[in-house]
Amino acid sequence: MIKVMIVDDEPLAVKYLADALMELEWLEAEIVKAYSGREALQKFGEGKMDILLTDIRMPGMSGMELADLARGKWPRCRVIFLTGYDDFGYAQSAIRKGGIDYVLKTEGDEAIISAIRKALDDIAREVDREAILKRSREQLHVAVPSLQRDYLLQLAQGEVDSLDARIRRFTELDIGLDAGRPVLIALGRIDEWGSFILPGDKALLYYSIQNIAEEYLKDTLKFAAFPYDRGRFVWLVQFRASEDGTPAEEQAYNQLAGNAELIQNATKSSLKVPISLILASTPSKWEDLSTRVDMLKIQLAGGAYNDLEVLMRELPDAPGEGQRASRDFFAENDMRAYTRNLDLLETYLDNGEREACRKLFAELAVKASVLPDGQDGELLKLELIANMSAFFITYINKRRLASLIGAAFSLESLVQLPVGVDLHSTVQHLAAIADSLAEYNGRKQAQRTTDLIGRIKQYVNEFLNEELSLTKISELVHLSSPYLSRMYKQTTGQGLLEYVTEVRITRSKQLLRTSDHKIQEIAALVGLDSAAYFTRLFKKETGLTPQEYRESVMK
């Protein structure tokens, strides 16, 4: 919704221009009227102006001064000056600033409408999708390091794209690794933080450790690094070339292992921070990155190696562990990766999206169905159910929903869930809870929307003789004007200003039938200052002038 402000110290000129613009069917705009520069300045507080249509010569504050203030507040505001011949040179000096046009008062309505069309075209071009994308691409390089870290962390947490998508993202983000080749992993741990105790200091420390490692490895290895969590980081390496016949994967490990202690020493010496490292024994496929990182985390944290400045190689699988890793271990990690969708579940519940909730739980049931049997499987099922129960209890507590949804289910049911062999039934029970929450939120949203529409309609009917601009009504309901306009039409199928017009015409008909008020008086009673505009609007909506309508119903 475009907002147009008309400013002139001649009230009739303002009303005439406002009426003319409101009759343009292609112009979806809110018209704001002001009769001096000072009054216009006060109305600047009602929200952003897109087009300012102002006379140049006005007492107190000139149009030129007002335009400077408008452009200072909203640099993208288009200004159209209404000028006389004497003001032409004056206007030309302002036009050189850009975003400013002028119309000679002697040129009439068509010239003004043409200038408004031009301003609208300028606004449309400025927010054009391609222009936005171009500016985004220009700014992208500033955000690339952060985007690289985010994407690599996503891969390490099990959210893996297809090969084609991965290759494309590696190219877009300038990640210096081959998305189609296996990658060797090193997991690091910061053993003591030293003087790097503040959040900003910790980010600097991660970056400094990465720089040290890159200096040692860059000649022979492709290298990428990212923080994994608050105390650990991941390095990913690939060998650049293999000229002596040694497999590239083996050379990558040799180079990484040969420099690991040097990197530890340099970090301790330069940053006064000890770090521990565990190196994967073999390269990993990108699809297996999450599984291997989890295994390295467990091994680095366990047993006799729980010390400072550990440097170790990934341990071989324990007896019987290999078969588990090929099926059960992947199922376990797949289940954990999927429970990260709880942030999506929260959004679905808040929005009342029942179908999306059902789909999420159907997919979760499939993940749960392939978890292993035996004691390990029972513990994994317990982990899944505990996570889901904790999520729902937190969700309900944060939103103070316990007393409102008691009829649907009890909170006790969330802490007394059966696990064992009845996991499928338990997931179904959780899905039913999610459905109840989504249904409740959806119903409350619909009720709030209905109440909001009711408040708006009541206000329009009670204060029909007052200003009923989008800005005024949006302030009443604490929503932005564009959102209110869109929401009202989506909900009712009718534009808000169309509804205001409908009520005005209905009230006008009633007054014409039942009172002796003059046409000018009826126009004022339904909130229209101009009898001429009221007559044109009434005829447009009914096919009759107000006087013709009055005469027809009096026969």
UniProtKB/TrEMBL annotation:
Mind listing the GO molecular function terms for this protein? DNA-binding transcription factor activity; sequence-specific DNA binding
Entry keyword annotation includes Repeat: no
Q: Which InterPro entries match?
A: CheY-like_superfamily (IPR011006), Homeodomain-like_sf (IPR009057), HTH_AraC (IPR018060), HTH_AraC-typ_CS (IPR018062), Sig_transdc_resp-reg_receiver (IPR001789), Tscrpt_reg_AraC-type_HTH (IPR020449)
One BP term from GO = phosphorelay signal transduction system
- Where 4-aspartylphosphate occurs, the residues are 55
The record's section on SMART domains has:
HTH_ARAC, REC
Q: Where is the HTH araC/xylS-type domain?
A: 454-552
Can you say what this protein is called? DNA-binding response regulator
